[in-house]
């Protein structure tokens, strides 16, 4: 990714947070990723680590319509994905997508059990949440023009606990310096 693109995304996300009265803590840890695929507008996500403790983590994420977070799971992390502003769609599988399509499994939506068919979409409105256990593959994208997404989870290890379906995906992008940085990313 170019630094100018990261700076642009930092400004867009900051403006969205301000517009919706989300106040970030001093010196939060920013992460802007295209997942190593080189197309941030299609496969991109902006994340801010609000809290990283040995037992738990809290993140705030920002995505624009047209951006998809690619299908992945976690070996150890249990997480709640919360639509804070806008509308969010998730596609969920109870195992590798090509091996589990159509299987039924139970997930927690808004703290209530719900039967879900592997590969189907789940739509969340502002304030709604889904709890994802380790091994549940998920992909997500905003269905509104932009979306603020919350995550509360067990301990976070983005380097070792993200298992993507696409083996070409890398968690952190390379950065081409074409202008001064407005913010430094957690990968730097």
TrEMBL record:
Its EC number is 5.3.1.15. Keywords: Carbohydrate metabolism, Isomerase, Manganese, Metal-binding. Its cofactor is Mn(2+). It catalyses: D-lyxose = D-xylulose. It comes from the Bacteria. The keyword Metal-binding applies. GO terms for molecular function: D-lyxose ketol-isomerase activity; metal ion binding. Pfam families: Lyx_isomer (PF07385). The keyword ATP-binding does not apply. It is an enzyme of class 5 (isomerase). Belongs to the D-lyxose ketol-isomerase family. This is D-lyxose ketol-isomerase. It comes from Pelagicoccus mobilis.
